[in-house]
Task: structure prediction
Amino acid sequence: MKGMADLLRSGAVMLSRSCPECGTPLFQLKSGEIICANCQRRVVIVPEGEEATAEAGMRLESVEEVIVEKLVTLGQAMSRESDPEALRPLSELMDSLLGNLERLRASRTA
Result:
């Protein structure tokens, strides 16, 4: 209850819909994001008939997050490496990941 009260005080709006996981009322933040006060998770409301499209978009978002995480890890490894020969495969991998990320983002806007 305290979390819900805090959300209301911060300007969030309680919606007539409830969380699909726990049944707690959902709140829409000023940013437009919808969250469950109990689960502390973002909730996406999908209009009827668009479930498959939304699910595919969420999967692509997950893949994008993984690629970005790998790019960060790879960047850290590259910053520690001083041997040019050891940098070559890391650089090629980064180029490949960036290409994949670019294609993924292009497919989402197409």
About this structure: Residues 11 and 71 are 36 Å apart (CA to CA).
